[in-house]
Automatic annotation (TrEMBL):
<dbReference type="InterPro" id="IPR050108">
    <property type="entry name" value="CDK"/>
</dbReference>
<keyword id="KW-0804">Transcription</keyword>
<dbReference type="GO" id="GO:0008353">
    <property type="term" value="F:RNA polymerase II CTD heptapeptide repeat kinase activity"/>
</dbReference>
<feature type="compositionally biased region" description="Polar residues">
    <location>
        <begin position="16"/>
        <end position="32"/>
    </location>
</feature>
<keyword id="KW-0808">Transferase</keyword>
<dbReference type="GO" id="GO:0004693">
    <property type="term" value="F:cyclin-dependent protein serine/threonine kinase activity"/>
</dbReference>
<comment type="similarity">
    <text>Belongs to the protein kinase superfamily. CMGC Ser/Thr protein kinase family. CDC2/CDKX subfamily.</text>
</comment>
<feature type="region of interest" description="Disordered">
    <location>
        <begin position="376"/>
        <end position="406"/>
    </location>
</feature>
<dbReference type="InterPro" id="IPR011009">
    <property type="entry name" value="Kinase-like_dom_sf"/>
</dbReference>
<keyword id="KW-0723">Serine/threonine-protein kinase</keyword>
<feature type="region of interest" description="Disordered">
    <location>
        <begin position="1"/>
        <end position="32"/>
    </location>
</feature>
<dbReference type="GO" id="GO:0005524">
    <property type="term" value="F:ATP binding"/>
</dbReference>
<keyword id="KW-0067">ATP-binding</keyword>
<dbReference type="InterPro" id="IPR017441">
    <property type="entry name" value="Protein_kinase_ATP_BS"/>
</dbReference>
<dbReference type="Pfam" id="PF00069">
    <property type="entry name" value="Pkinase"/>
</dbReference>
<feature type="binding site">
    <location>
        <position position="80"/>
    </location>
    <ligand>
        <name>ATP</name>
    </ligand>
</feature>
<protein>
    <submittedName>
        <fullName>Cyclin-dependent kinase 9</fullName>
    </submittedName>
</protein>
Length: 406
């Protein structure tokens, strides 16, 4: 077990939700989406020079990530740069939210945030520091591992990966946090085989709406290929179950080694979902007609559900096929949650979950999506920006072709 590291408490002002309008958010300095960093108490924040940067390991949509070493303790860490490009002055609210959420979550299967550090403020940078989120270093991410054909996981090892993924999800959901960007690149695995949910850049706190009230969260979240059908149909009153769709996609990917539904547009993504999970009707999903987009989007009709049929060439285990089938359920109210999934026979029949440490010990170089050659059929991630207007792209009819990429 890891010892929780002592993270200096940053007095983070309360963070408005993504749906908060810019000009009526009283706690945000200047009425913008950033906070003046002079307003924060930075006396606990060490300088970047405390760490020695070693290599660049990630270039996400929102910034660079470096492998680094604490000069004193020699401990390896990852440093994720907080992007300040669009901030004239101040600390981006999205980064504050990510930090606040990571500070709250302490679990074996959630990435441990060590601290925030900063560059020295000099006249050259007009007295403005750059900030880094410092976290424990993990040797691999799942996208990197899956892109390496030399890495082969046994059924027991796949069970261990899924069990840890669902344990992490169970924990964050118990703590009323939605991840909202599950995908292989955001799942880290240490050389000891411990899985860590990472990248809480799109995460948010969730609360169950009171009686007839409805939450109005943005639905422009989750990388397109892992986005559940209810978000594609415009749902804004959603909860933890949206993350379980992504868990289902990732579970299948552990065998196919490439994302199973690589849509090019939102419309095309829905099309691929229907190709795999069957047509969306009020029979399989009562009340689905409440969404305007259900009638506005052009959706295939008469499609049979083929989840097990199409995946059986890759997934030989019946229990595994059944659990994928229970996660990739169109109607979110019938989709398995993390707890139910953890109780599925898949985890409780032979072979039992097996530690990954031995398999990983054969691979001494780190595997990250950033460093790996593109996976088969994979072009781009389509990570959404939830700060964009909550608008749907127009529906095009001419992109209904689909590529079966696995
Ligand atoms: N603690 C860490 N240890 C190892 N690699 C990491 C760590 N944090 C991030 N990375 C790598 O950097 C990539 C980008 O980081 P992430 O937190 O996902 O940011 P982004 O918002 O840019 O996607 C990850 O996919 C992973 O490969
Ligand atoms: Mg990421």
């Amino acid at each position: 077990m890891e010892q929780p590291s002592s993270l200096p408490q940053i007095p983070v002002p309360s963070v408005p939700s993504a749906t908060t309008k810019r000009n009526n958010s009283p706690r945000v300095a200047n009425g913008s989406t950033s906070i003046k960093y002079e307003d924060l108490n930075f006396q606990f924040i060490p300088e970047e020079s405390k760490y020695e940067k070693l290599t660049k390991i990630g270039q996400g949509t929102f910034g660079e990530v470096f492998k680094a070493r604490d000069r004193k303790t020699k401990k390896l860490v990852a440093m994720k740069k907080v992007l300040m490009e669009n901030e004239k002055e101040g600390f981006p609210i999205t980064a504050l939210r990510e930090i606040k959420i990571l500070q709250l979550l302490r679990h074996e299967n959630v990435l441990n945030l060590v601290e925030i550090c900063r560059t020295r403020a000099t006249p050259y940078n007009r007295g403005m520091s750059t900030f880094y989120m410092v976290s424990d270093f993990a040797e691999h991410d799942l996208a990197g591992l899956l892109s390496n054909t030399h890495v082969r996981f046994s059924l027991g090892e796949i069970k261990k990966i899924m069990q840890q993924l669902l344990n992490g999800l169970y924990f964050i959901h118990e703590n009323k946090i939605l991840h909202r960007d599950l995908k292989a690149a955001n799942i880290l695995i240490t050389k000891h085989g411990v899985l860590k949910l990472a990248d809480f850049g799109l995460a948010r706190a969730w609360s169950k709406p009171q009686r007839s009230a409805q939450n109005k969260y943005t639905n422009r979240v989750v990388t397109l290929w892992y986005r559940p059908p209810e978000l594609l149909l415009g749902e804004r009153n959603y909860g933890p179950i949206i993350d379980l769709w992504g868990a289902g996609c990732i579970m299948a990917e552990l065998w196919t080694r490439t994302p199973i539904m690589q849509g090019k547009t939102e419309q095309n993504q829905m099309f691929l979902i229907c190709q795999l999970c069957g047509s969306i009707t009020t029979d399989v999903w009562p009340n689905v007609d409440k969404y305007d987009l259900f009638t506005q989007m052009e959706l295939p009709t008469g499609q049979k559900r083929k989840v097990k049929d199409r995946l059986k060439a890759y997934v030989k285990d019946q229990y595994a096929l059944d659990l994928i089938d229970k996660l990739l359920v169109l109607d979110p109210s019938k989709r398995y949650d993390a707890d139910t999934a953890l109780n599925h026979d898949f985890f409780w029949t032979e072979p039992e979950p097996i530690d990954l440490a031995e398999t990983l010990s054969k691979h001494t170089t780190s595997m990250f999506e950033y460093l790996a050659p593109p996976r088969r059929g994979v072009q781009q991630g389509h990570r959404p920006n939830p700060n964009q207007a909550n608008m749907h792209r127009p529906v095009h009819n001419n992109d209904q072709h689909f590529d079966q990429v696995y």
